[in-house]
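Design job #97: recover the sequence.
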């Protein structure tokens, strides 16, 4: 991964706004409804051209494909792995339980539609999971990204996201009667062994791999909302163990790990402090951590990197843009947040400015207007320019 050797570099977290037509087709495919495959390919190519152009126009240094071919940042794996079926029901987040008025507000905002992606009603792992040995899905995604990149200016760096073993297993829950996995540990490690094929394909194609692992923080208020902190942290340790198993053939400096508390615009009053997580996260064999630090609930936690110093081999990709609100950050505010991260880590070269999370983690679930999302990414680059002047003179 590139470091901020001469200036503060910029990136983002993965998902970017899809066109409404593409979102509709992706959801219909997820639901098993008949769609025009050629039209889906056309919509993906058109949207992909747009998100690459948008990232470059915004001034980002490390860009990706915006996850535009995927229905969801985690649920896409059910299209590439066998063993899933039926329908599970994830627990509601503590925000929904403690603030019923907020829950009703969110329900009104999202609405009810047949064109909504599966988020809380995802398939179950009913038997042993197996990644498609032909790697058809990831190969097609890599090919479409390569084609789109060939048509324009080349970025400084490219990355591609993939769901972590932990987020797969906490999103697509293990069925109680699964004959192949008597425990969650069995399930988590099995998913790690299968997903490693996708991870290695991404790195072999020349991209930095970003593992999306919101489970390492977010599940404190979902799956483990009624458990004690120690029980949750034991699960975090298991998920990091699974990450390391899946990455055994990949150099750490080719991998960045995204951890977050969920990108809904809720109270987040029960989020686990990042200081509880950092000692465990530092055990992951990755070269960078992406942590949300641009929102009102976690911005103060930047100082945690003083009390829990970042390992020498790691970069920090601090989120300095909130992706849940349509407030447009002033570039000076962005610069302040970047400089706070530099002060906490003590090394300007190991800070790459990013966003808190994605702008379109699931097709049809977007809380920031598309034009505002692109303006936020422009503000990110402008803020990085200001921070560079402050830090380099």
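Job complete. Output follows.
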């Amino acid at each position: 991964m590139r470091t901020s050797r001469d200036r503060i570099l910029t990136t983002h977290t993965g998902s970017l706004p899809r066109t409404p037509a593409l979102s509709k087709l992706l959801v219909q495919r997820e639901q098993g409804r008949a769609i025009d495959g050629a039209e889906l390919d056309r919509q993906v190519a058109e949207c992909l051209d747009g998100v690459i152009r948008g990232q470059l126009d915004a001034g980002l240094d490390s860009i990706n494909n915006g996850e535009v071919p995927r229905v969801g940042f985690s649920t896409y794996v059910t299209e590439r792995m066998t063993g899933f079926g039926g329908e599970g029901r994830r627990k509601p987040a503590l925000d929904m339980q403690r603030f019923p008025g907020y829950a009703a507000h969110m329900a009104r905002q999202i609405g009810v539609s047949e064109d909504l992606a599966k988020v809380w009603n995802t398939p179950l792992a009913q038997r042993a999971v197996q990644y498609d040995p032909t790697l058809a899905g990831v190969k097609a995604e890599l090919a479409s990204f390569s084609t789109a990149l060939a048509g324009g200016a080349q970025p400084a760096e490219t990355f591609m996201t993939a769901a972590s073993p932990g987020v797969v297993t906490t999103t697509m829950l293990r069925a109680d009667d699964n004959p192949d996995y008597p425990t969650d540990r069995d399930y988590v490690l099995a998913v790690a062994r299968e997903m490693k094929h996708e991870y290695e394909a991404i790195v072999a194609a020349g991209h930095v791999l970003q593992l999306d692992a919101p489970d390492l923080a977010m599940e404190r208020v979902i799956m483990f909302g009624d458990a004690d902190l120690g029980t949750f942290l034991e699960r975090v340790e298991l998920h990091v163990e699974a990450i390391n198993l899946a990455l055994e053939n990949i150099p750490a400096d080719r991998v960045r790990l995204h951890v977050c508390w969920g990108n809904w615009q809720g109270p987040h009053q029960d989020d686990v402090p990042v200081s509880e997580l950092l000692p465990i996260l530092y055990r992951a064999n990755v070269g960078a951590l992406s942590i949300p630090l641009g929102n009102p609930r976690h911005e103060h936690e930047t100082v945690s990197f003083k009390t829990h110093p970042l390992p020498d081999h790691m970069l920090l990709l601090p989120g300095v843009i909130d992706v849940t609100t349509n407030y447009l950050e002033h570039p000076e505010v962005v610069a302040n947040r970047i400089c706070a991260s530099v002060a906490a880590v003590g090394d300007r070269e190991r800070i790459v400015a990013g966003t808190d999370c994605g702008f379109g983690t699931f097709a049809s679930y977007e809380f920031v207007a598309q034009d505002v999302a692109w303006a936020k990414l422009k503000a990110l680059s402008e803020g990085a320019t200001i921070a560079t002047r402050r830090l380099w003179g």
